[in-house]
Write a structure and sequence with these properties.
The protein is of the alpha+beta class. The chain contains four helices and four strands, in the order αβαββαβα. It has a domain at about 35-130: Alpha-Beta Plaits, CATH 3.30.70.120.
């Protein structure tokens, strides 16, 4: 027989596990939204692509920051560049369309196109993204 303290601890872990599962179920609906990052060699290209994405209703917002310094490996060498970073807010269901649109106009041979989930956000802001982009 287990001592009472260990039994209570096991019960607490089960309760904690129940809360985690509940939290994970809630998160699934919020994972409908993503941020995509991509970079450009100059601000005018970044702004041009941002306007295209917003015009096609693929993005609700594109924030442009820069210049940022990028140090990376390219074709066997270490490179250093100043770039402008675009952070794009959209719905996960639009990722493939967004990737295709970015690739079709991006000047880089291999553009960075990385999506990360938005795991939390204000109800109003996420609702605004939902309203401003294509989809249901």
């Amino acid at each position: 027989m287990l001592p009472r303290a260990k039994s209570s601890r096991a019960e607490a872990l089960v309760k904690a596990d129940g809360r985690i599962k509940k939290c994970q179920n809630t998160m699934v609906s919020k994972l409908e939204y993503i941020q995509i990052s991509t970079t450009f060699a100059n601000r005018s290209d970044a702004e041009s692509v941002a306007k295209i994405l917003a015009g096609k209703k693929l993005s609700a917002c594109v924030q442009i920051s820069g210049p940022v310094t990028s140090i990376y490996r390219w074709k066997g060498k270490i490179e250093k560049s100043k770039e402008w970073l675009c952070v794009i807010k959209t719905r996960r269901s639009l990722y493939k369309s967004m990737e295709k649109a970015i690739k079709s106009v991006h000047p880089y041979e291999l553009p960075e196109i990385i999506a990360t989930p938005i795991i939390e956000g204000s109800k109003e802001y996420l609702g605004w993204i939902q309203k401003e982009v294509l989809g249901k």
